[in-house]
Amino acid sequence: MLNLKIGGVPEHFNLPWYLTLRDKAYQKEGINLRWHDFFGGTGQMCKALREKEIDLAVILTEGIIRDIINGNECKIIQVYTQTPLIWGIHVAANSNYEKIDDLKGTKAAISRYGSGSHLMAYVNAENNGWDTKADLDFEVIKNLEGAVNGLPNGIGDYFMWEKFTTKPYVDKGIFRTVGYCPTPWPCFVIAVRNEVLEKHEDEIRSLLDIINTTTEEFKMIPSIDRMIAHRYDQELDDVQEWLSLTEWSQENLSPKTVNNIQDKLLELDIIPRKASYEELVYEI
After folding, report:
1. What is the pLDDT of residues 24-53, one digit of tens each?
2. Where do the Ca3427-like PBP domain residues begin and end (predicted)?
């Protein structure tokens, strides 16, 4: 039995992994897969991959591309969700900020440097014509809980996180949403450490076959909307909207998409250079 550890955010996107693990689907293929929640998101997962604490990660596309270019010895082996991630731009409910323009030059609360919340602050700044050097400032708050506790107390001025995950906090009057910022590319990919891929490509292929079968049929699971609402403390209407917007993928990133993502990251001065397709992506 091959022992593998996989990491991801504890959010509704990753319910297919829970279902396959619950059904012991990987064990039938000789894989003892263990899931690890990463509340700190992409930056925390990149660190765990580098330090060999996990073998695979379901991770934000822009974050892992940046980290591979910066020396993380991993490869992207597949897109997980094809659709963009819709980032909500949140402020404390008691703040004076009313619109995105009010946030120019204020502090973005981020989980950590190199995280999705960090990188997408640059995308949002560019979308709104801000100077990314002069108009961006950051406050590290580690995770969503850090923002929930921090923003109402003046630790950071705004916080970007997936809109449906933060919706319960908006409904409770902790956050207000002042706008949205979708990623300009597919949001989540599956990345594997090179060492694991070299030694166990067949098992990784079997793992992908299992998760892909589940994501292909995910929306057809009876009462899946109610399961998500209950498990992730979501309103049923919000879950149904999210399901209508979200498409999973069973394919890898195309060279054109990888090129477009790197062009944007380079333009925003987030990466020092562009890497070849082969440096970033492995076709199983």
Report:
1. 999 999 999 999 999 999 999 999 999 999
2. 87-179
Domain 86-182 has CATH 3.40.190.10: yes
pTM: 0.93
pLDDT tens profile 79-124: 999 999 999 999 999 999 999 999 999 999 999 888 899 999 999 9
| Kind of pairing between the strands at 188-193 and 74-81 | antiparallel
- Structural class in CATH, domain 2-83+186-280: alpha beta
Contacts of 147 (CB under 8 A, 6+ apart): 90, 109, 141, 156, 159, 161, 175
The separation between CA 135 and the C-alpha centre of its own chain, rounded to angstroms, equals: 24
Would you kindly state where each structural domain of the chain is located, as residue ranges?
2-83+186-280, 86-182
